[in-house]
Design goal:
This protein is 41% helix and 14% strand. By secondary structure, the chain is α/β, with parallel strands linked by helices. Strands 6-11-10-9-8-12-7 form a seven-stranded mixed sheet, sandwiched between helices. A five-stranded parallel sheet has the order 2-3-4-1-5, with helices on both faces.
C-alpha cells in the first residue's frame, strides 16, 4: 500500500530473512566471518548466539548463498526432536539412503559411511542447526558424538550451531563440558547501536529503491528507546509507521505517528514519555543542588542530564572463550533541552596527581546520582586518552570513541582479567545503603587500586574491591591500523603487515619483510600469544586478542600498571 506512495520498489521492513536486506554492521560482518570460518575449518563446533530478532537467521541465509561448491550442507531448521529424529533428518538432508525403522546405531553408521565417501571425493560436510537452544542435553551429546567420526588427520563433519543466549548457558552445564571444549569459534550477536540503527534503516530503504530520509530525527530516537536496537522490532514498527504516514499523507514519519505505530505493535503507550519527563525534571533539580559541589570539586559543569536508554554495544569475541554473552546497555546521555555546548577541555579534568585522595572510598556527596557519576566517569576515561568528551554533542559513547580510532566494549571478567587487559575501565560500584555510582579504575598500586568517583580520587584495597566487584565493565582500546574484521588464516592486507611486526617484537625476532599473508607461521605466533594470556588459542586475531596485544606493546596507551608484563594477581 505505502510502497507506491513513497516510490519504493519493495517493502523494506519485512521480517522475512531476505539476504538482500542484510545490513553488515561491524558485528554482523564478524558473525558472518565466523560462520564462513565454520565452512572451511577442519572439525569442531562454531557457535553463534544472539537475542531474538538480532539477525542470526538473516546472517545464516547470507551464508547459504556463499557455500563452496565442494561442500555438502545439512540445514536443520526445527531441532526440537529426539536424537533418532535428528539423525534421520540429517540423513534426509544429505540424501543418505536408509532402511525403514533404522535405529540409532544404523543411522550413525550410515552417516559415517557417507562422510567417508564424501571425504574420499574431496568434499566437506557441514551440519548447520538453527534454533539450537531447543536441543535437549541428550541430543546435544549425540551431536558431539558425530564429531568423533574422523580419519587420522581430519574431522569428517563440521557443525555450526545458531541459537538464543540460553544455548550458551546450556553449554556451561557440566554434562556438556566435552562439547563446549570442542567449540573452536563463538560469537554473540548483540542489538544495533543508535548509529547502526540509523544506517540499518537507510540501508533497507536504499535496497527498496529510495535514498530519502523517511523518518524524522526525533522519531528515530524514540524508535531506538522502544526497540533497544533489535532489528526485528525495528522492522515491525517501521513498517507500521510508514503505513500510518501513508494514511495521513505525510512526507515522513513524525513522532506522533511512530508512537501510534508502537502502541499497535507493542502496546507501549506514549504516556511513558511523560513519566520519563518527570524523572528528567527531578534529576534537573538534583543538578541544581549539585552545581555548588561541582565547582568545589573542580569538575566541569555538565549541561545535560544523563538518562539511560537501551542501545547495545557490539562485542566481539574472537580469540577468547566468550565471557560477554550477556550484553549490557551502551550509555545514551540525553539532554533535557537544547543546551549550550559544554566549554571544557581534557586539561581541566582532575588527574590522580592533583586530586586529593579521599580516605574512605565509600564516601561521596549525597548529590552525586548514578547517572551523573556515569557521565563524569566517561568524561574522565576519555581524558586519559587525551580526548575532550561532551555528552551533549555525543550522547552515544561508542561512536564517539570510534571517531578517534578507539574501540569500546563491555567485558565480563574478574580483577585478574582486568589486570591482564591493563586498560583503565569504568564499572558500577554498588553500596548496600547509598546505592550505585560509576567509577573509573585508574591504576593498581601494589595491593590497592586508585579510583576516580565523581571527580574525587579514591583508594581501595584489592581485597575490598574484589569483594564488591560487579564482574562487568567498559574499556577503551586502540584498534590496529586498517583493521576491518577478524584476521583468519589466508587473510591479507595492511593489518597483517602490522601484526607480523608486533609478533616479531613480542618474540624478539626480526619481522619478515612485507609479509601480507596471514600464513601458518603468523597463525602459530598468535596462538602462542593467546595461550600466554589464557585466551582460547584459535589463531584468529580479533578485537579480544587485540585488547591484550594493545596493552602489552603500545607504549602510548593508558595503563593500569606500568610497562612490565602482567602475569597474575595475588590478592591479600
Amino acid at each position: 500500500m505505502y510502497g507506491t506512495y513513497f516510490g519504493l520498489s519493495d517493502l523494506p521492513f519485512s521480517i522475512a530473512p531476505d539476504p538482500r536486506y542484510l545490513y553488515l554492521s561491524q558485528q554482523h560482518r564478524e558473525a558472518l566471518a565466523h560462520l564462513q570460518y565454520g565452512l572451511s575449518c577442519n572439525g569442531g563446533f562454531v557457535l553463534l548466539t544472539g537475542e531474538v530478532g538480532t539477525g542470526k537467521t538473516t546472517v545464516c541465509r547470507s551464508l547459504l548463498e556463499q557455500v563452496p561448491e565442494h561442500t555438502d550442507l545439512a540445514f536443520i531448521l526445527n531441532p526440537k526432536c529426539t536424537a533418532q529424529e535428528l539423525l534421520s533428518a540429517i540423513c534426509q538432508e544429505l540424501a543418505i539412503p536408509l532402511n525403514e525403522g533404522a535405529n540409532l546405531k544404523q543411522l550413525t553408521d550410515a552417516i559415517h559411511h557417507h562422510l567417508l565417501d564424501a571425504h574420499a571425493q574431496g568434499r566437506q560436510t557441514v551440519l548447520l542447526i538453527d534454533e539450537a537452544q531447543n536441543l535437549s542435553t541428550e541430543v546435544l551429546e549425540q551431536i558431539r558424538l558425530l564429531t568423533n567420526l574422523e580419519t587420522n588427520t581430519h574431522k569428517l563433519l563440521q557443525i555450526i550451531l545458531l541459537g538464543q543466549p540460553e544455548l550458551a548457558d546450556k553449554l556451561k552445564q557440566p554434562e556438556l563440558r566435552q562439547l563446549s571444549q570442542r567449540i573452536t569459534a563463538r560469537y554473540h550477536l548483540a542489538p544495533l547501536s543508535f548509529s547502526e540503527m540509523k544506517a540499518y534503516i537507510a540501508h533497507r530503504l536504499s535496497v527498496a529503491g529510495i535514498e530519502a530520509a523517511l523518518f524524522r530525527n526525533n522519531s528515530l530516537r524514540r524508535l531506538y528507546r522502544l526497540t533497544g536496537g533489535v532489528p526485528r522490532l525495528i522492522n515491525v514498527i517501521c513498517d507500521r509507521a510508514l503505513l500510518g504516514a501513508y494514511v495521513q499523507r505525510l512526507p515522513r514519519v513524525d513522532l506522533a505517528t511512530l508512537n501510534r505505530a508502537a502502541i499497535e505493535v507493542l502496546g507501549t503507550s506514549p504516556a511513558l514519555t511523560r513519566w520519563q519527563n518527570l524523572v528528567i525534571i527531578s534529576v534537573l533539580l538534583a543538578l541544581v543542588v549539585t552545581g555548588g559541589w561541582l565547582a568545589q570539586s573542580r569538575w566541569p559543569a555538565i549541561t545535560g542530564v544523563s538518562q539511560l536508554a537501551t542501545p547495545t554495544l557490539p562485542v566481539i569475541n574472537t580469540g577468547r572463550v566468550i565471557q560477554q554473552e550477556e550484553q549490557r546497555p551502551e550509555p545514551l546521555i540525553t539532554p533535557t533541552s537544547e543546551p549550550e555546548p559544554a566549554n571544557q577541555s581534557a586539561s581541566s579534568i582532575p588527574t590522580p596527581t592533583d586530586a586529593v585522595t579521599q580516605p574512605d572510598p565509600w564516601q561521596w556527596p549525597a548529590a552525586l546520582t548514578t547517572d551523573l557519576s556515569q557521565v563524569m566517569a566517561y568524561q574522565y576515561l576519555f581524558s586519559l586518552w587525551g580526548l575532550d568528551y561532551d555528552p551533549t554533542e555525543h550522547p552515544v559513547v561508542c561512536p564517539f570513541a570510534r571517531q578517534h580510532r578507539l574501540e569500546c566494549a563491555f567485558q565480563n571478567g574478574d580483577l585478574d582479567t582486568v589486570q591482564q587487559q591493563n586498560h583503565p575501565i569504568i564499572f558500577r560500584l554498588e553500596h548496600p545503603e547509598k546505592g550505585a555510582v560509576y567509577a573509573t579504575l585508574l591504576r593498581f598500586n601494589d595491593d590497592r587500586a586508585d579510583l576516580m568517583v565523581g571527580g574525587q580520587l579514591k583508594s581501595m584495597s584489592l581485597m575490598e574491591l574484589a569483594a564488591n566487584w560487579p564482574h562487568s565493565y567498559v574499556l577503551l582500546w586502540q584498534l590496529p591500523p586498517h583493521y576491518q574484521a577478524p584476521l583468519h588464516p589466508g587473510s591479507r592486507g595492511e593489518t597483517v603487515i602490522w601484526l607480523e611486526q608486533q609478533m616479531a617484537r613480542w618474540q624478539g625476532r626480526s619481522p619478515r619483510r612485507k609479509n601480507r599473508h596471514y600464513d601458518k607461521i603468523l597463525v602459530g605466533d598468535i596462538r602462542a600469544f593467546q595461550r600466554s594470556k589464557g585466551l582460547t588459542a584459535d589463531g584468529i586475531f580479533g578485537p579480544q586478542t587485540s585488547i591484550y596485544l594493545n596493552a602489552m606493546l603500545l607504549n602510548d596507551a593508558p595503563r593500569l600498571i606500568g610497562q612490565q608484563e602482567i602475569t597474575s594477581v595475588v590478592y591479600p
